[in-house]
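Lecture 7 notes: from sequence to structure.
We start with the chain below.
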Amino acid sequence: MTSPQFPRRAHQLAGGEMPPAQYHVVARMLRLPEQSAAAARMVLVDGARPSDAAAAGGVSPSSLSRTVGRVRAAHESIRAAYSPQKRARRPGATTAPPPR
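Predicted structure tokens for the same chain:
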């Protein structure tokens, strides 16, 4: 049986990349201008195409691209800071018991 083929950005079909509450917090932290924030929200929360969001928001595509990149980077930094850290293993430590 073959696996189904998904579009490159399949997450956009079911909405955006992040929940609205998370987007709102990141956008406020970055102090985004209102028009840029609205267009970036269309892309990241609503799953709109960047070209459509830029036109609807009244911003240039390149400006929107930079804004979306800033929001993604800040969001990922926050997620990394709050995700559980993997503990470093001691040199020579094994997960299996030593052989007899």
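Points to note: The mean pLDDT is 82. Helices lie at 20-30, 34-44, 50-57, 61-82.
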